[in-house]
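Q: I'm building a small set of examples for a reading group on sequence design. Run inverse folding on the following structure and report the sequence directly after it, with nothing in between.
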């Protein structure tokens, strides 16, 4: 079961929110690098007359120093985000998940770049599609009381 995974730490909502000022600029840098990477990759594909459907397209693209450097930088930024104990998910969407204990189950608090604060959660196996507001009354102790810690 996915929720049996070992995480370096579990976050409270406050701890996740406190980390956002450090994460926002990292995610913004990823967006900037991805935009430049798209443009540079398109130029390399056109210039080298490469087929976008070629099975070795990534290898061919990485032969370009600028493309290889950008890919390396994006990977480094993802690793930096993950080093805080959270998980960079969906880099193109700016998604970051924070492992959290909810009612005896490990779930993810979910934040997307552009959101002011962490306002959602989802079960690990449900992913972003299963995102629910933090104050979803369907969870908790049956009296509408929810504990995120």
């Amino acid at each position: 079961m996915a929720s049996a995974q070992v995480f370096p730490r579990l976050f409270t909502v406050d701890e996740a929110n406190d980390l956002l000022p450090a994460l926002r600029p990292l995610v913004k840098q990823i967006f900037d690098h991805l935009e430049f990477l798209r443009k540079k990759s398109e130029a390399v594909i056109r210039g080298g007359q490469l087929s976008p459907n070629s099975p070795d397209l990534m290898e061919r693209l990485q032969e370009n120093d600028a493309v290889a450097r950008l890919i390396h930088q994006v990977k480094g930024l993802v690793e930096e985000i993950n080093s805080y104990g959270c998980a960079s998910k969906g880099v193109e969407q700016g998604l970051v998940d924070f492992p959290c204990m909810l009612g005896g189950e490990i779930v993810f608090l979910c934040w997307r770049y552009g959101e002011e604060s962490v306002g959602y959660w989802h079960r690990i196996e449900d992913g972003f599609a299963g995102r629910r507001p933090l104050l979803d009354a369907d969870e908790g102790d049956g009296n509408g009381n929810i504990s995120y810690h």
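The mean pLDDT is 86.
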